Task: structure prediction
Amino acid sequence: MSMPVHSRVILRATIVLLATGFLVQGCDNGAAPSVVGGPVAMRRLSETQYRRVLGDVFGPEIQIAGRFEPDGRRDGLVAVASAFVTVTPSGFEQYEGMAREVARQVVTEPNRSRLISCAPPDPKVADAACSEAVLRQLGPRILRRPLEESEIGPRIIAAGEAADLVEDFYAGIELIVTSLLVAPDFLFRIESVAKGAGADGKSSLSDATLASRLSFLLWNTGPDDDLLAALAEGRLSDPESYAREVDRMLASPRFEEGIRAFFEDLFHFGEFADLGKDPIRYPMYSAKVAADAREQTLRVVIDHLVARQGDYRELFTTRRTFMTRTLGPVYALPVRAESGWEAMELAPGDPRAGILTHASFNMLNAHPGRSSPTLRGMFMREGLLCQSVPPAPADVDFGLFNADDDPRYKTARDRLEVHASGASCRNCHVLTDPIGLGLENFDGIGRYRPSEGGAAIDASGDLDGERFGDAVELGRALRENPLVGECLVETAYRYAVGRVPGLEERPLVRHLVRRFEQEGYRIAALMREIALSEGFQTASRPAELAKALALDVSPATGKSEEGGS
Amino acid sequence: MSRRITRRRLLERTLRGSLAGAGLAVGLPYLEIFLNENGDAVAATGAPLPRRFGTWFYGCGMNPHRWNPAEEGAGFELTPELMPIGRVRQHISVLSGFGVILAGETNHVHRTGVLGTLTGGAPATTTENDGPTLDILISDAIGSSTRFRSLEMAAHGVAKDSYSRRNENAIQPAEPTPVDLYMRVFGPGFTDPNAGVFEPDPRAILRKSVLSLVAEDRARVEKQLGQADRARLDEYFTALRQLEHQLELQLSAPPPLEACQAPQRPEAEPVSQDIENVVRNHESMARVLALALACDQTRVFNVVFSAGASGLHTAGSSDTHHTLTHEEAKDPKLGYQPQATQFVLRSMEAWAKFVEILASVQEGDGTLLDHAVVLCHSETSDANSHSVTGLPIMLAGTGGGRVRNGIHVRGAGETTARVGLTLQQVMGLNVAKWGFKANETSRPISQILV
Result:
């Protein structure tokens, strides 16, 4: 089935309103504004996405060992940089090595009988029919869309040649699997728009692209069999079916993985990979402590936002947390569970509450040998409030600032006050330091300390006019700050579409902010609104392609899709 | 389709006639004299010994008044911060007084200095640079015949701290440990050119076949992309072709190379930014690299000893080299920051060790270093003020008798693009002018040219 693109888009927009039960009452707080999304993107899979897609296709038995190209970060997100980064020779060597190793495992027993649906009469001889069956079964899951015929024929021939050369049918299957895993269509999510649209610049995404966007947003992996079936049967063009898919996916246990990936990106948790601490200053620190600290925060996020469907802002005040034996000493808390995670609730008088008091943030936003109020403040400003902090001027005079072994200045506050007393420094440090100092009771790995260098730590300050006395009150101030919710919406939209929203999308973002507030700051509701929005489902073509493809319109065929995912 | 025909098709497609059949063993005239009488070329083929180019970067500069030599030319007196290079000074030329001309551009701290030297001009933003780095330009010209166009390594263990980039989105990650470097070069896929017997691996044929399949599908992928993404796809296919080329080399017998000898696999040591670990891993990487060069696995390399805004630190200290440069008080008697300066000296020692290791490998009538030229540089001179004028720059090796070693050349506040231009010309690139905006230059540094 096919319907004109415009009515598809309008219908989808209507579904947003109906499905959320929200009545249209003028444009102030009502209908989602009609917008067109920005250009389609070509996004490189993250390591997690790569692993998850292969885990879905081949099962957890398959080991993936290799080094991935470093991620970039743009406009605050790895997800945005993924639309800019490419593949270097050394990165490609790694991809090819991993692909061969995965393919080798796929054809060895017992994986062979589990994953390969047919067997040739003679395993030493090529069997084109069986090769093709395997390709048609695995290809769409790996490439996240139906295969084109031109992707099938050459692979079957090459697989036959390989089988002949080494007298092993399965060498041909290895070749097919490897060829899919090194293909640009696998390593990148290559987006495209539906054919036959775009005279006025408004185009729906192709169904394959929409399926992929949706599935990576909500699950951080490729489409499952049901979504691929909906795609193959053309059901995603139908707004009601599309909305049903969105709801099915939001209800799936995999939604946790989508939310986890989003917060890992927002919190810069990828940087744990390169984190190191001075072993003499912090003998308690280890790679395991760091891994558990990271996991602790993600567990609290998932538990609060997904399992309990809680208010996002309460992440900054919640006393509920999870602990392991490894983390216990950092928190100076006894942990009963010998292994695994133990849920706990911190006592009301505890100096910690909310995720900013977790060890994770405090060790990540710090130096190898000490805390950093400036880095912590930067993260809050840029990551949680979406405010930009200008970089330090190059010719800044550091003459006033002295190293932290200067006996005159005992605490970080003393040192920073000296430092930021110069006018050129104050302009930026006034944004970061007063709130960063709110976390000074946590050292460079997030242990609580009442004093530094023998002097009591003063963790009081104010967040844009809201006074706080310590980290717990700082969390409360954040909870009440209207920018916190707005920033999450903006960031989630940026994450979903892989780019900074254009000017024309600002009304949509404002609308999403209002809906987030109305829905009690629940993450599932936000993701749903985004997935059903026009900004998410439409795109403009790359300028130079728009003209070329406009000539390619063939409305009579009723075939509305181009390739791509 | 008969089996015989399909097999021939596959072989034709993947081998391009370089090999008569899989599993073939080829005896090589291993005992023949390797070099011609002049000792500057391989006797068997008449090909000249390869020339190599490398960069060696360390973070956070130096103290200009303690680093810059006073006299020009040969026989200059070593300054306090150049003392560590004393034992290899005959292999090194010191260039002082060359910097990045800002001319109104922002000094993006710890970035402008390094990319300015490597791309020939001050980057306009923090997310883009205006050109490929010097090593990319040179590897495009001389890197295509070896297994690797270039090798990148980071002694401080952070793979993403690499300055080698065609553009900001194609940053070549560095090998973060000596073992990673060893495995990449000397792991499976390495063919010892002096083994005497050559047995091509039929699996390499199948691997090539996979890459051909993907390459032949390029037009389908490309047609849906805009210009920027097409350029990114080009990068992908460049990487793919590089691997195809590696496999081609694996399918033919390599010419023997006298200096080539596969190293022992290095022991896995702790990797961190603790200066002692970095020094040890750097030395270990340098030894693997030297043999990778001697075995002609690559002709271009990039070593990062420490990143810009260096995170090197001493065990037990709350500071890093970078934070010390900003926060440590200048000792009023000494006139510099004593702790920060320790890192400068350690960096200079490591550089001297690097030069020494390349000079220890005999090759032809000289050493590996004689057939290489290595650019040592940093992103600042005085790191406290982020200065990008008068950057510390050194060249080691004569690049096959083309570069003068053992001298000091003082630039008069001129652009480091002159260094880059000179190096491209030394490496045989046909370039008369290089750099952009205020850094554009057509003047090589003639004093260091032989």
Remarks:
- Residues 181 and 414 of chain B are 36 Å apart (CA to CA).
- The first strand of chain B starts at residue 26 and ends at 27.
